[in-house]
Amino acid sequence: MKLLTTYLKISTKGNTDIIDITQDVQNSLRDCSLREGQIPLFVQGSTGGLTTMEYETNLVKDIKNAFENLAPQNADYAHHITWGDYNGHSHVRASLLGPSLTVPFKEKKLTLGTWQQIVFIDFDTSHRNRNLIMH
Amino acid sequence: MKLLTTYLKISTKGNTDIIDITQDVQNSLRDCSLREGQIPLFVQGSTGGLTTMEYETNLVKDIKNAFENLAPQNADYAHHITWGDYNGHSHVRASLLGPSLTVPFKEKKLTLGTWQQIVFIDFDTSHRNRNLIMH
Amino acid sequence: MKLLTTYLKISTKGNTDIIDITQDVQNSLRDCSLREGQIPLFVQGSTGGLTTMEYETNLVKDIKNAFENLAPQNADYAHHITWGDYNGHSHVRASLLGPSLTVPFKEKKLTLGTWQQIVFIDFDTSHRNRNLIMH
User: Whose C-alpha in A73, A135, B56, C26 is 20 to 30 A from the C-alpha of A1?
Assistant: First the structure.
């Protein structure tokens, strides 16, 4: 079994930017010698996370809203004392969501549901270039 | 190392139905050539999720209640404008919990704690037949 | 591909004790025959969880606070009727966070971000010795 570490570069706008990366992950299967298996995805960095969702504009708003309720941007965070970068909410949201997701594939195709996309969420406060690690 | 994609069909009642699937996952190890390894589990669909818990009636109530606090069923969701199926809360809960869980096993037995069961949670609004993917 | 099940013993203080286990996980790679791959981590027990974060004192406070908001310690939990051990909040927090995390490594080094550490969180109400399973 051959393992390939691939880095997916993602350019984000930050501020709980929710990005559909399904096609990028699907494309990475082209270079994979396996027809069947699973792809572990991992966010390098502590202000981003991964999950799946039905990727449509209105639900994107709902999910952003849910994270605002979970860890409001304007609440007090002790982390702000440490660095003064005012992204305490970004860290809390990212840690609650988690940085890892493992997606199975079969016949070289991700076994997602019809209305299920893989999303990377950048919770940080400004645009970034992010590294997502795929095996 | 041989990989087997297995589909576990789960019949649910929906409405944050929490189902103990530990025995089903354990049974799937019978057909596995490995004595030691890990089983990646994945929910096909965007309104279900996976985690572990002590599966007992009262805690099941508490976990349902926690999801109701996290994303209340009767809140306003923009997603309702898209399809009119009033399951915005189901999607939000599922995306926060996440669709993937990887459970190790040793000597053909899941290495769970004594009071730890694997649960599939169906957040959707009516009963469904769900596909859970196991490798 | 050789799989090794390793148990990491963690001594905790409980009460949402957040412990940086990055070095322990990194050390476990020494005994691994692979230079590149991923380590699936799994918490044995239903009141602990895993995630990553920037491990610094103030953010540790913020994350504890977020879990207190998510599932307050002094709320009513039906689970208390079952065992009378008053750790309903511990179970709810652990199930929401999840027991599994898969971390990639390359050249025998975990591919974490510079400000990203792996943490084990013990939500239970008193100190414990915990088993974390690594492959």
Answer: C26
Residues in chain C whose Cβ is within 8 Å of chain A: 1, 34, 36-38, 51-54, 56-59, 61-63, 66, 70, 96-98, 101-104, 106, 111-113, 115-117, 119
With beta carbons less than 8 A apart as the criterion, state whether A129 and A9 touch.
yes
pLDDT tens readout for residues B107-118: 999 999 999 999
List pLDDT tens digits, range C71-117: 999 999 999 999 999 999 999 999 999 999 999 999 999 999 999 99
Q: Residue C61 and residue A70: Cβ atoms within 8 Å?
A: no
Nearest to A135 by CA among A106, A98, A102, A94: A102
Q: Which of B65, B40, B127 is closest to A102 using CA atoms? A: B40
Establish, for the pair of chains B and C, how many residue pairs have beta carbons separated by less than 8 Å.
92
d(CA A30, CA A77): 44
**Average pLDDT for residues B36-42, to the nearest whole number?**
93
Q: Amino acid letter at A44? A: Q
Cβ–Cβ gap A113/B78 under 8 Å: no
Copy the structure tokens of residue B36. 């030691």
**Are C60 and C18 in contact, with CB atoms under 8 Å apart?**
yes
As for the ipTM of the complex, it is 0.95
How close C96 gets to chain B, by Cα (Å)? 6
Please state, in angstroms and rounded to a whole number, the distance separating the CA atoms of residues C53 and B97.
18
Q: Which pTM was predicted?
A: 0.96
* Residue contact A59–B71, C-beta within 8 A: no
pLDDT 10s digits, A34-82: 889 999 999 999 999 999 999 999 999 999 999 999 999 999 999 999 9
> Which DSSP symbol is given to B66?
H
Q: Residue B37 in 3-state DSSP?
A: strand
Q: Mapped to the 3 state alphabet, what secondary structure does chain A carry?
A: CCCCCEEEEEEECCCCEEEECHHHHHHHHHHCCCCCEEEEEEEECCCEEEEEECCCHHHHHHHHHHHHHHCCCCCCCCHHHHHCCCCHHHHHHHHHHCCEEEEEEECCEECCCCCCEEEEEECCCCCEEEEEEEC
Residue length, chain C?
135
**pLDDT exceeds cutoff 90 at B76:** yes
The residues that bridge with C131 in the sheet, in sequence order, are: C9, C44
